[in-house]
Amino acid sequence: xxxxxxxxIMYAQKGDNLNIxxxxxxxxxxxxxxxxxxxxxxxxxxxxxxGSLGATDILTELYFEExxxxxxxxxxxxxxxxxxxxxxxxxxxxxxxxxxxxxxxEELTTFRAINSRLQGHPNMNYVEGVDMSTGSLGQGIxxxxxxxxxxxxxxxxxxxxxxxxxxxxQEGQVWEATMSAxxxxxxxxxxxxxxxxxxxDGHVDEGMSVYPLDKKFEAFNCHVINIDGHDxxxxxxxxxxxxxxxxxxxxxxxxxxxxxxxxxxxDQQGWHGVAPNEEQYHAAMKELEAE
Amino acid sequence: MAKxxxxxxxxxxxxxxxxxxxxxxxxxxxxxxxTKSGEAKKVDPARHFDMGIAEGNMMSVAAxxxxxxxxxxxxxxxxxxxxxxxxxxxxxxxxxxxxxKICASHxxxxxxxxxxxxxxxxDVSLMRGIPGMKxxxxxxxxxxxxxxKAVAEIDGPCxxxxxxxxxxxxxxxxxxxxxxxxxxxxxxxxVALVATGLMVQEALEAAKKMETAPTVVNIHTIKPxxxxxxxxxxxxxxxxxxxxxxxxxxxxxxxxxEVLAEAGTACKLVRVGxxxxxxxxGKPAQLFAKYKIDADAIVEACTK
Lengths: 291, 304
Known about the structure:
The complex is a heterodimer of chains A (about 290) and B (about 300).
Chain A: H1 5-14, H2 20-44, H3 49-66, E1 81-84, H4 90-99, H5 139-153, E2 160-165, H6 172-183, E3 189-195, E4 198-199, E5 202-203, H7 204-207, H8 213-219, E6 223-228, H9 232-244, E7 250-255, H10 278-287
Chain B: H1 6-20, E1 24-28, H2 32-35, H3 38-43, E2 48-50, H4 55-67, E3 71-75, H5 78-84, H6 86-94, E4 100-104, H7 123-128, E5 134-136, H8 141-150, E6 158-161, E7 183-186, E8 191-195, H9 199-209, E9 215-218, E10 221-223, H10 227-236, E11 239-247, H11 252-263, E12 268-274, H12 284-290, H13 295-302
Parallel strand pairs in B: 1-2, 1-3, 3-4, 4-6, 5-6, 8-9, 8-11, 11-12
Antiparallel strand pairs in B: 5-10, 7-9
Helix pairs in contact in B: 1-8, 4-6, 9-13, 10-11
């Protein structure tokens, strides 16, 4: 079992505030972001749609509610920062930055093309708002630890967020990084695991099980919260709980569905790193049409 | 004058850097006493991070600190810095060109008794291949201290190779380290000994034993290498003998060979270094003799 349903349901019941209006707005942003993800990967005829669509709600909640980031502070260290440790979900990050207005939307179709700023995996020197160059799994979380250490040192109260893949947790470096984050009591660091139980070659629990993730992170002295990674109420509550947790980093194990939003891509191993053909593209865009 | 290891110079440089530059932070992987990075802790413990025996994580954490405006010095033994941490150095530090200074100690076979597992003879080769990485191999205390301080002023990733064993002073007190500039220590004829790191002392020792005094050059910066000087040496000498405490593959010898080949300058090249084999336990002097990189071996190489 890759996620304990019981904990997720318990967490949902904790929901004291049902932000219906906010959630509707977030859902609209998420839909636009998903459309742009599909567009990017279709334009490039390469890239990773599955993990990008699956992580979209997490990124939407981060960028449209949780994080202190805007046009004015974008180019400074005086804001919350985000490291996409699972760098192959770059289409999601670029689409979020475009949705925020930090990146021209029309540029998204240059994804993975020659001379484009939108590299297959994110390059921090090309795009404002990309806070770390990532792509090699396991390294982004360590970089986030370094940023959190720097903020502690500088008495900068801004927070550092990072999203990992569950398959990524097979990398030993993830555990080295977690050990160091807990050792240095980095309560300004929030680690979110995009837990879709799929990796390139198949299911995570069948290929090389990382489970139980929550108990592992707990044993590494982190505060752990299990949630449904597509439920904005749960995401909002968990990020608030993370902010209020002192003396240790928080790990949010967010249960997600890879390919979420495009029915034929959902929970399909085959959509890890494959681009849709023309017919599939139109079918996907139809599903993602705004209401 | 007493022999002092270049790693000691690193510790002394950090003591000053920690006071002079508040942006300097230091990381180590449970070897702060050996690498001498622990000297930084004495100045400001809050800016020295022991990352445990986890070198890969240390390199990426250093990258994160640098991405937050810090000048991050990361230290451990050369073997684990560049070997274990290679991909983190390449992708977290090199690719984004972050301001991390990898000052690695215990490089080469002069590590001695610990044996081959700890004698890194591939680090210069590994670091040289990373785009934008500067590679410096200081020869004595004075040069090492200046180099360790100079890299703080260079924007981007740098690798400084430091040794465990004590070395005599080569440069005078008025010596001024200049990145990328080779230093002609003595002018001679026919043969030019082009050395780096503690092999500069061996080259000077060898020069004393030769009938015709050779030119002796200290190449402390392997990348960017002083092409102009090397081509000039090739034009004015019959033979260049490179001297390094590193594999002959990928280090100074290779870098000089590349310069010579591209310049099209006809000059015989002999590479003194570890000849594509692993080292072993023993005293540094015994190892230098056995692996043919001591002064006698350099003299012999000049006759080839």
